[in-house]
Design a protein that fits this description.
The chain is mostly beta strands and 162 residues long. Helix content is 4%, strand content 43%. The chain is built from one helix and eight strands, in the order E-E-E-E-H-E-E-E-E. The chain has one helix at residues 85-91, and strands spanning 8-19, 29-36, 42-48, 59-65, 110-121, 126-133, 136-143, 155-161.
């Protein structure tokens, strides 16, 4: 589903099977359990219910990206290399003051930034990737073939839309 010239490392459509099935622990945070339609993946995700309310049986699109830039950065390009004006603008895709180029965040309703902190190889085919987004946790379980671009220790953006 992703193209070669994209920063998106994973994307799929998920349907929520349960929300807070172990009970609600925090006022503004819920934990959802979902299953994907295309890649047969299982997702557990903590998210802010005030910013992005979701219910059981609801579907949403989820993407994981290495950057918010629409085009992938050129391989082998050093970040220390001198940049001209257009490359300088590309580096700061999103800015809180609204300036800068628009990136992937414009296509989604809910965005979090975090880090992939653990990668478990369960059986030969099934693996689980774990990420933390400022304490909000995600686990994504499924075939390793669909998670080859998710790298342990790399920063990642989680993007969601209904």
């Amino acid at each position: 589903m992703t193209s070669a010239a994209s920063n998106i490392v994973f994307d799929d459509i998920f349907t929520i099977s349960a929300v807070d099935k172990e009970g609600k622990k925090f006022d503004r945070v819920s934990r959802l359990y979902a299953h994907s339609k295309n890649y047969d993946m299982d997702l557990t995700l903590d998210y802010n219910v005030e910013l992005f309310p979701l219910k059981e049986e609801q579907s949403f699109a989820l993407a994981l990206a290495s950057s918010l830039a629409r085009e992938a950065t050129a391989p082998g390009r050093s970040s220390d290399a001198p940049a001209d004006d257009t490359e300088e603008k590309d580096r700061d895709v999103w800015r809180p003051d609204g300036k800068g180029r628009r990136g992937l965040e414009d296509d989604y309703d809910y965005v979090m930034y975090g880090k992939v902190y653990k990668f478990d190889g369960g059986t030969a085919e099934i693996v689980t990737a774990y990420a933390s987004f400022g304490g909000l946790l995600m686990s994504l379980t499924g075939s390793f073939r669909h998670m080859t671009n998710i790298v342990l220790g790399d920063p990642v953006y989680l993007l969601m839309r209904k």
